[in-house]
Write a structure and sequence with these properties.
The complex is a heterodimer of chains A (283) and B (254). Chain A has 283 residues and is mainly alpha-helical. Helices cover 74% and strands 1% of the residues of chain A. Chain A starts with a helix and ends with a helix. Chain B has a six-stranded mixed beta sheet, with helices on both faces. In chain B, strands 1, 2, 3, 5 and 6 form a five-stranded antiparallel beta sheet that branches. The longest helix of chain B has 14 residues. Classes of the chains: A mainly alpha (283), B alpha/beta (254). Chains A and B meet through helix 7 and helix 8 of A and helix 2 and helix 3 of B. Bound molecules: adenosine-5'-triphosphate and magnesium ion.
């Protein structure tokens, strides 16, 4: 069978469209399923109360708060460090064996399983630095896990800024830092935001790194300092889905739904920020 | 030939890694004139131009030997203050590369990074001045908030020149500033350069021999990294002393 160019074009368009649809379908399916099963379990009480009666009743407020603390903690440690490291690597570092080694290490670190980070965080922060199982130790562990992704994303965003931008700025007598601040960062910020939010979303949903470093099995009272343990949504979800017999399924799904909404909200914030920065160009 | 000079190079050699792009260049560029650098593609014109404001420093593999003397000071030394050098020696590139920002912000950029003026009225005054000197003030005085990317290419290139002028430079380097412009816009820019030479030392790299003949008073011909001949434009285009220059001028190659 032979087709002319126009038919082929239509065929290609159709096939590519179908593939895109096939990729999206499972995602929509998962989300729809979780909403359908989780929504009935949602209530004001569920969002604002601690769990009761062996976690079969009450809410998940401590876990929500714990996860928010962990996201904030991760952000505080990983964002400045990751972004500055990427700026150094792209803008300042000379091409030599040390730089190459660092870059290689970053690529490899992003492939390390999260449980390994969990063990490292346990040994390093909980035991060696004596932070105990705490928000601090958990945030640091998650931050270290997120760093390679944040660095890589930031690096790519910085490298995407055309060389000529830097050239003009430098030719006008700007210093390197002024060039980065006024010509490079404003243009790479959307990319940096996308990458970092992706990394933080992943951190928010991880169980393994927080397992030994911060997560509490059951802790209805709220943390008072960053040296306290907290409950966290992904670990709580794991606990109620596997460790507690006769757990009403709707509570598990409702917990999953809350976690998804939280991550979704984070993405929403980044979209809003991106639009805002694009309008302001950060000048 | 004896004349005052603003820029002078002494035995300037430049290497990109192993490749030698400039070979023993000795050039003397007079003040408040237009000096054109011509030569076939890849002969090192841009490279030479970028030696005058040390833009080659951005390329890691570059190594230079020899002196580049501007106002009796060798700028080809590690201790040279690149910030004030580049303020004094402005550069305009081949493509009109305005920032994707308003006209105002394009011009205020240099003022801001050099902390030249603080008061807004003074900045506006300087912007008016700079736009005036490139013949854009009338067209743009009500459009300072407009994004510079929406201007015509010719306006954009003028804006790039204004962006340099607002820093009160002494030397303006232009690397094929007209190559993306149409003939009419090109003539307008040439006219502008002709006016600017009263106040600034202008060095222009161009592919276009007619352009060099039209606007420059001095002219250098480069070939394969060498400065084959440097003289008044009149002499270069009428009695070149080197046969290679003559061949190029008469269109036998390049
Ligand atoms: N970054 C670089 N790394 C290695 N070689 C380079 C680099 N830039 C330029 N060259 C080489 O140096 C030589 C001179 O380049 P240059 O750009 O100065 O030429 P040009 O005369 O300006 O050419 P054109 O008229 O095409 O702009 C060329 O052979 C070029 O291949
Ligand atoms: Mg060139």
């Amino acid at each position: 069978m032979k087709f002319d160019a126009k038919t082929r074009e239509k065929l290609a368009f159709f096939i590519l469209g179908m593939i895109a649809l096939i990729i999206i379908l499972p995602i929509i399916g998962v989300i729809a399923y979780i909403i359908k099963n989780g929504a009935p379990g949602l209530s004001w009480e569920f969002l604002t109360q601690p769990p009761r009666n062996g976690m079969k009743e009450g809410g998940i407020f401590p876990a929500i708060l714990g996860t928010i603390y962990l996201i904030l903690g991760t952000m505080v440690f990983s964002l400045p460090l990751g972004i500055l490291a990427a700026i150094y690597l792209v803008e300042y570092a000379r091409e030599n064996w040390l730089t190459r080694t660092i870059k290689l290490a970053i690529i490899n670190l992003s492939g390390v399983p999260s449980i390994v980070y969990g063990l490292f965080g346990f040994a390093m922060f909980v035991i060696f630095l004596k932070f105990g199982t705490s928000i601090l130790a958990g945030s640091l562990t998650l931050a270290i896990m997120s760093l390679p992704v944040i660095i890589t994303a930031t690096k790519e965003a910085l490298e995407a800024v055309p060389k000529s931008f830097r050239e003009i700025s430098l030719s006008l007598g700007a210093t390197k830092w002024q060039t980065i601040r006024y010509c490079v960062l404003p243009y790479s910020l959307p990319g940096i935001l996308t990458g970092t939010v992706l990394a933080l979303s992943r951190a928010a949903g991880e169980t393994a790194p927080i397992l030994f470093t911060v997560a509490a099995f059951y802790l209805p009272r709220l943390p008072r300092s960053m040296f306290d343990q907290v409950m966290a949504l992904p670990y709580h979800l794991y606990v109620i889905s596997t460790q507690i017999p006769n757990m009403p399924l709707s509570l598990s799904f409702a917990t999953a739904l809350v976690l998804i909404v939280l991550v979704f909200l984070m993405n929403l914030v980044s979209i809003i920020l991106r639009a805002y920065f694009r309008k302001k160009k950060l000048w | 030939m004896n004349y005052p000079c603003k820029i002078k190079t002494i035995n300037l050699n430049l290497f990109y890694g192993e490749f030698q792009a400039l070979k023993n260049i000795n050039i003397k560029i007079p003040p408040k004139n237009i000096t054109a650098i011509i030569g076939p593609s890849g002969c090192g014109k841009s490279t030479l131009l970028r030696c005058f404001n040390r833009m080659n420093d951005l390329i890691e593999s570059v190594r230079t030997e020899g002196k580049v003397i501007i106002d009796n000071q060798n700028i080809n030394l590690p201790e040279t203050d690149l910030i004030s050098l580049r303020r004094k020696v402005g550069m305009v590139f081949q493509r009109p590369n305005v920032f994707d920002l308003s006209v105002y912000e394009n011009l205020a950029f240099g003022v801001k990074i050099h902390r030249l003026y603080r008061s807004k009225t003074k900045i506006l005054e300087e912007i008016e001045h700079a736009l005036e000197s490139v013949g854009l003030w009338k067209e743009l005085k009500d459009k300072l908030k407009k994004n510079a990317k929406n201007l015509t290419l010719d306006q954009q290139q003028r804006l790039c020149i204004a962006r340099v002028i607002i820093l009160k430079p002494e030397i303006i380097l232009l690397d094929e500033p007209c190559s993306s412009l149409d003939p009419i816009a090109t003539l307008k820019i040439e006219e502008l350069l002709f006016q600017l030479k009263e106040k600034y030392t202008i060095v222009i790299v161009t592919h276009n021999m007619q352009q060099a003949a039209r606007i420059s008073q001095f002219c250098g011909f480069m070939l394969l990294g060498e400065l084959v001949e440097f003289d008044t434009t009149e002499k270069i285009f009428t009695y070149p002393s080197d046969t290679r220059t003559e061949n190029y001028i008469t269109g036998k190659f390049g």
